[in-house]
Amino acid sequence: VGAVVGATYPTELVELRRRMLHVPLLIPGYGSQGGTAADVAAAFRPDGLGAIVNNSRGINFAYRSGPLAAEFGPRRWEAAVEAATKQMIADLAGVLVRPAE
């Protein structure tokens, strides 16, 4: 069992993660819908796991709108998908605290 918590509700996300430390969270609303990496950082457990952040619109249509559209366009949609995915990974990695090894 898990929970779905929108990226555009970061205050609630903090509280729900605190109450449900071991529950996996699905986080829609990232990217095109306004949620940022900083907004979803609290969804992850201290070990950096526990959340799946969804950005399907921002990735699938990166060639059509947003900052990557001018660079890639429809003919290079695959490259836009790759660039958008890498950017999301970098953004999320930038806000996650990594546990000491």
From TrEMBL:
Signal peptide: none annotated. GO terms for molecular function: orotidine-5'-phosphate decarboxylase activity. GO terms for biological process: 'de novo' UMP biosynthetic process. Pathway: Pyrimidine metabolism; UMP biosynthesis via de novo pathway; UMP from orotate: step 2/2. It comes from the Bacteria. InterPro entries: Aldolase_TIM (IPR013785), OMPdecase_type-2 (IPR011995), RibuloseP-bd_barrel (IPR011060). The keyword Lyase applies. Keywords: Decarboxylase, Lyase, Pyrimidine biosynthesis. Its EC number is 4.1.1.23. The keyword Lyase applies. This is Orotidine 5'-phosphate decarboxylase. The lineage of its organism: Bacteria, Pseudomonadati, Planctomycetota, Planctomycetia, Planctomycetales.
